Amino acid sequence: MFVQVAVPVAVAVVVIAYKALKPPPPKICGTPGGPPVTSPRIKLKDGRYLAYREAGVSKDEAAYKIVFIHGFNSSKFQSLPVSQGIVEELKLYFLYFDRAGYGESDPNPKRSVKSEAFDIQELADALQLGSRFYVIGTSLGGYAAWSCLYYIPHRLAGMALVVPFIHYWWPKIPRELSRRVIRMLPDVSDRWTFRVAHYVPWLFYWWMTQKWFPTLSFLSGGPSVFTQSDLKILKKLSKDPQKTQQGVYESLYRDIMVGYASWEFGPLDVRNPFPDNNGKGRVHLWQGYEDKIIPDEMNRYITKQVPWIKYHEVFDGGHLFIFEQHKCDLVIKALVLG
Q1: What pLDDT is recorded for position 90?
Q2: Contacts of 119 (CB under 8 A, 6+ apart)
Q3: Which of 214, 233, 301, 331 is 20 to 30 Å apart from 291, CA to CA?
Q4: How would you classify the pairing of strands 49-56 and 41-43?
Q5: For residue 286, how far is the Cα from the chain centroid?
Q6: Whole-prediction pTM value?
C-alpha cells in the first residue's frame, strides 16, 4: 500500500520540481505566435539575428563611430542624450543594438561573456564600421565591454566603461575585497540573487519566479538602490515595451547568469590595447560616487592595478548619470578626444 501511494507522490513532486526549474520557451521575433520584426537586423554566422538602430551623422560622414552596449532591462531604444551640437561638431555616428534575447535580437542559448564580444564584432563588420570603432558599455552591459577589451582589442579605437558591472568572483580579485564589496549592496536580496546566479545557475529561474523571498531590488525601481537623481532620470527614460517581449528568461535572467558565470579572465588579465597610443585610443572608466548599485571600491581597485585605464569619479553621479546630457557630453568628449 505504501509503495502504491509513494510512487505517484514522488512522480508528482518530480514533475512539479521540473516545471518550477524549467523556463518557458522564448517567443522568437518573426516566428508564428511571436512578436513582429520592426527593426533592421543582421544575420550572424550561427543563424541568429541581431537588431540594431543607427543615430547621429551618417557613417560616410562620421569621424567617430561609437557602438553603445545597453545595460540590464534596456534595449537599442535607450539613446544617449548627447548634445546635438557635439554630434554635429565631432561628426559622431552611434550604433545601438539589442543584445541577445533583448528586443528583437534572437536569444542565444549558448550565450557567454565571450559571445557578446563576437556579436558586436559581427555587427560592426556587417554594417561596415571599419577596422576600429569606439565602444561604450554601461551597467550590466559593462561585462560585454570587458569582453571586447579581452577578446577583440584589435578592433577598438577607444572604450568607455560607465558605472560598469562588477563580478564578485572575478579571477585575481582579492577575496577579502569581493566579500567586503558585496556587503556594500544596500539590499540583501541582491546579494543572494547574484550568489544564486554564480553558484547554482540551474536554480536561477526558480529563484526569480518564487514568491517566498525577494529577488532583485532594482527591478522595482525603489529608492533603496536608486539616488534621487536616478529616480528623476528613470521617469524620463523611454518606456520601451519591446525590451523583454521574447521572455524575461532569455533577456533579463540569462543576462545576469552570463554576467556572474565563471569567467576565463578578469579585469586584471586585460592588456592595454593602445600601448603606443600617443594620446589616441584610451580606455576610460566612469564611476558615480553616489551609485548604490555598483560599489565604487571595486572599480577604484581595478584602475589602480590597471593604470592604463583612466578613472573618472563623478561626485554627484548616481547609477544613471550617463543619461544626464551634460555628463554624457563629458563622457563622449573624453572618449573620442582623449
Answers
A1: 97
A2: 44, 50, 99, 100, 108
A3: 214
A4: antiparallel
A5: 15
A6: 0.92
